[in-house]
Amino acid sequence: MNSVLASPADALPCPPASGAWRAGDPPGRRRWHGLRRPLPLEAGGELAGVRLAFETWGSLAPDASNAVLVLHALTGDSHVTGPAGPGHPTPGWWEGLVGPGRALDTDRWFVVAPNVLGGCQGSTGPASPRPDGARCWGGAFPFVTQRDQVAAELDLADALGIERWALVAGGSMGGMRALEWAVSYPERTGALLLLATTAAASAEQIAWANVQLHAIRSDPHWRGGDYHDTGLGPHAGLGLARRLAHVTYRSEPELQLRFGRSSQGAEHPWHGGRYQVESYLDHHAGKLVRRFDAASYVVLTEAMNAHDAGRARGGVRAALGRVTAPTLVAGVDSDRLYPLAQQAELADGIPGADRLRVVESPYGHDGFLIETEQVGGFVRELLGAV
User: Fold this and answer.
1) DSSP secondary structure string, 314-338?
2) Catalytic: which of 148, 219, 335, 366?
3) 3 state SS for 151-215
4) CB-based contacts of 373: which residues, under 8 Å, 6+ apart?
5) What is the pTM for the complete model shown?
6) Which of 153, 216, 225, 268 could be 273's S-S partner, Cβ–Cβ 3.0 to 4.6 Å?
7) CA gap 358, 256 in Å, rounded
8) pLDDT for the residue numbered 254
9) Which H or E run contains 302?
10) Which residue is catalytic, options 172, 251, 296, 361?
11) Cα–Cα distance, 89 to 74 (Å, whole number)
C-alpha cells in the first residue's frame, strides 16, 4: 500500500508543448501508484519507473469486496466524475453514472479509475520524464499493448488490496482493457460490462486509425515524437486526427439534423467562411489539443490497433471462452465505428453473456458516453447479481 503516492513530487517537469499533465501542475483528485518492479512488455523488453495516476470515489469495504474498476476510452482519463478545475481541464466523462444514488452508487461501491499506461494525464507516457530524469520519453516510449496496460493496472489493484473486482467496466478502448482483464485474470473479475467495443481491432478500424497517425506524424513539429522540449508540439496534426476521429464517433443522421448545410453564423463558405459542421469539428480539435498529448494519441492508437484477445490464445473464440464472469455486452445502434456485429461476437462467445444489449441513440459511437440512463440500467443489472 505504501506504493500509492499522495503526490508526484519525485517527478521532474517537462516543458509545455502539449496538453499533458506535468509535474508541478495542480494534482486535482489524482493519486499515484508506482509499480514496484519494471513492467515486462508483450512486444519485448521492459519499462521501468512506471506510475499510474488514478482517482477513487467511495470507501473500500474491510474485505475489499465492493471495488469497481472503470476504464476510459482513447482520450479519456481518470476523471470519471467531478467538475473541471485545477488539475482537471474537463468535467467527468461519465458524470451521470458515478456518485451517490447513481448506478455506481459511491455510498456502496468503491470506484477506481486509472489513467491508462501511455496516457498523458498523470500516468507514465511519452510526455513523462524517463527514469533518469534527463528528458521526456518522447518518440523513444516503447510500444505497449492492452495486455501491458492491464498488467500495470493489476499492480495497482494489488497495491490497493483488491483481490477481485466486483465489476470491471469500460467502453471502446476501455472495453478492450476490460475484456483483457476478464480473459487474463478471470479469477479477479467478478462481473464484466463491455460497451461499444470488440474482441479484435478490424481492418477498417486500423485504416481509420492509420490516417489519424499519418496526420500527426506529417506535422513538421512532430520531430519523431521528440517535441516536448521544443516548446511547440504537432498541434495541427493532432487537430486533424481529432477531426477525422470525431466524424467516426458520431452518426450521419445526427450531423445532418444538427448542422445540415448551414453556415457558421455570418460566415459564408464561398468566401473563406465555414459550414456549421466545420466549426463543430474545429471546436473539438481545439479542445483536444489543449488537454492531450499527440505522442500519447499515437501510443494509445497503436495499442488499440494491436488489440486482439485471441492472440497467442488459440483465437478469439478460445479466448472468450476463458471469461468466467457474468457479462453484459452492449453496443450502440447508430455506431458506425464499432458496429453491433462486433458486440454480437462478444456476446455469442462469452459463456456468461446472455444476449447482446443495444443502446438506442442517435449519437453514434459516443452514445455509450452520452446515454448514461441506459448504461446505468446495465450497471444496476450486473451489480444486482453480485
Assistant:
1) TSHHHHHTT--S-EEEEEETT-SSS
2) 335
3) HHHHHHHHHHCCCCECEEEEECHHHHHHHHHHHHCHHHECCEEEECCCCECCHHHHHHHHHHHHH
4) 96
5) 0.95
6) 268
7) 23
8) 97
9) helix 294-306
10) 172
11) 16
Which three cell numbers mark 386? Answer: 453480485
DSSP state for residue 106 in the 8-state scheme:
T
User: Cα separation of 16 and 291, whole Å?
Assistant: 11
State residue 6's pLDDT score: 39
Q: Is 365 a catalytic residue?
A: yes
To the query of whether residue 172 is one of the catalytic residues in this protein, the response is: yes
At 214, phi and psi to the nearest 5? -65, -35
Helix (H, G, I), strand (E, B) or coil at 263: strand
Sole residue written with cell 460490462? 193
Q: What would the mean pLDDT of 321-325 be, rounded to a whole number?
A: 98
User: What distance in Å separates the CA atoms of residue 82 and residue 262, rounded to the nearest whole number?
Assistant: 35
Which is catalytic among the residues 33, 284, 307, 365? Answer: 365
| pLDDT for the residue numbered 386 | 61
Q: Which pLDDT belongs to residue 176?
A: 98
Cell numbers 492492452 correspond to what residue?
Answer: 146
Confidence of residue 28 (pLDDT cuts 50, 70, 90): very high
Q: Which amino acid is at 304?
A: M
Pick from 202, 186, 172, 198: nearest CA to 375:
172
State the pLDDT confidence band at 91, using cuts at 50, 70 and 90. Answer: very high
Q: Assess whether pLDDT exceeds 90 at residue 381.
A: yes
C-alpha cell at 265: 453564423
